[in-house]
Amino acid sequence: MLSTLPREILLMIAAHLINPRDILNLALCTHGFYALLHHHAFTTLVLRDHDLHQLSRFTDVLARNPRCAQAVRVLRFDPDPEPLPMREGDLTKYDRAVILPVLEKSGFSSTAVARWENELQDKMDIDAWIAVLLSLVHLNVEELAVTFYWPSFYVRKLLAKSFEAAEAGGGATFFPRLRELSARWWDDENGVPSSYILPFFRLPSLRIFNGEMIQDGRPSDADDLRKEVPLSYEEYYDERLLEEPDYETDPEGYFAHYPGDENFSNVTHIRLTYSSSEKGFPDLIRSCRSLVSFAYEHGNCASSMYLAPRRFYDSLRRHKRSLEELEICYDRWAEGWGDELESEFIGSFGDFAALKRLRLRWENLLLPSDGEGGAVTKGAANIPMEALPLSLESLTIEEYDKCDNPKDFMAQLRGLRSALKSQCPDLSSLRVIVTGEDMPPQEDGWPLYSAPSPGVHGTRRAAELVASTVENISIPKGHWECFDVSIINREW
């Protein structure tokens, strides 16, 4: 019988059950199973965004069962494409005898605790409830995906208080085992300020950060946490109207104002999608001691409407010995505005000794040269080969249709490939992304594929179908062995 199996075998069985409900059903079989397995059903928690009914009840359960709270290893708030309608009685569940002791352990003042308690009973304040939940589960969580709501005061305040306690020798750091953090903004406008994220970078265990709709932070964001209670909506937007320097008068992006200075974070991988930065996120990039990968997809959502790749370069150069993968381009649903910053040459990667994978827009790889009559041309011949590292293994060129003379694409690409193989002996993949308007004709011999999903990561099928490419371009067979050339039409 199952009940006669050793505890170790039962735990192995529970570990292979993916659905938490299956674990709960198993735990309910006997009193012994319940004592052994019940808390394992809480190892992975996936909650719906904007659902205070679900959030408040889960928080109540974990507050009553500390063993279950400490069992949580993965906590995710997932966007719900079809939010459940509010039903009669679907209000927050607030039991003061259960939740108040949790608030009092936070280190907040009595004034702040009283305000926090009031907002927990307000059915519209999700941020206050998220903070309570995080304070319950943080000890053993290794992966966290959280949605930030305005003004995210209590989550940020909890993190700041934990650092104060740790520095004073009076407590453990918040999220001592967190390795991966994913953050997204709750709305489809504006974004999570980078200053909200930067304190998480101080967590010693954190290695990976994924952000969606991240924008530039402000120096005054840190001032919010010096207050006992969050700013009102009116106070917050009054402060945002204060005069602040633009990039030209403050090219470091207020970096000196951020806590921790440089090189204090163990984060090695940063991926930002549908995000916006006028300054190139110097606070996030320079905080890292040794950045291995950085990916940025610009979205027209917040602080900067245009992509300015050159403004990322100086911060990225600080990681030229460790950076292995770099992507800077527009998000699938974003587009350029014709600003000159969009087409600037990003800079040379010739001395980036570890760089293996590079994904950039066509214009940002080019050094413009004068054509006939003094006209500036932007073709493949204008890519400075010395700007590419010897270690490069994969090059993806976005927005080919932005370059001049698309009709000469075949000749340009043949010349580019020859030059690349000479400069980058380890290069095995060259991919060119077009948007469909000026795409090269398929009958010229180059295979043309449609990207099946957003982003270059949806092009695996194309990579699998390029075996005939080597023979189709009139180059001796075997000369370009294992050299993957793909032209991918990204349909909008």
Q: Which strand order do you get reading across the main beta sheet? A: 1-2-3-4-6-8-9-10-11-14-15-17-16
Shape: globular
Question: What is the average of the pLDDT values?
Answer: 76
Count the DSSP helices: 17
Q: Structural class of the secondary structure composition? A: alpha/beta
Helix content: 25-40%
- Low-confidence regions: 371-376, 437-484
Into which percentage range does the β-strand content fall? 15-25%
How large, in whole angstroms, is the Cα Rg? 26 Å
* Number of E strands: 17
Largest beta-sheet details: 13 strands, parallel
Termini, distance in Å? 58 Å
Notable traits:
13-stranded parallel beta sheet, F-box-like_dom_sf, 16% strand, alpha/beta, LRR_15, Leucine-rich repeat domain-containing protein, two-stranded parallel sheet, 17 helices
Describe this entry's structure for a reader.
The relative contact order is 0.06. Strand 14, helix 15 (409-423) and strand 15 form a beta-alpha-beta unit. This protein has a 13-stranded parallel beta sheet, with no helix packed on it. Strands 5-7 form a two-stranded parallel sheet. A two-stranded antiparallel ribbon has the order 12-13. The chain has 492 residues and is an alpha/beta fold. Helix 2 runs antiparallel to helix 3 and helix 8 (126-137) runs parallel beside helix 9. The radius of gyration is 26 Å and the shape is globular. It is built from 17 helices and 17 strands. The protein starts with 6 loop residues before the first helix and ends with a strand. The longest helix has 15 residues, at 153-167. Residues 263-434 form the Leucine-rich repeat domain. Pfam families: LRR_15 (PF24969).
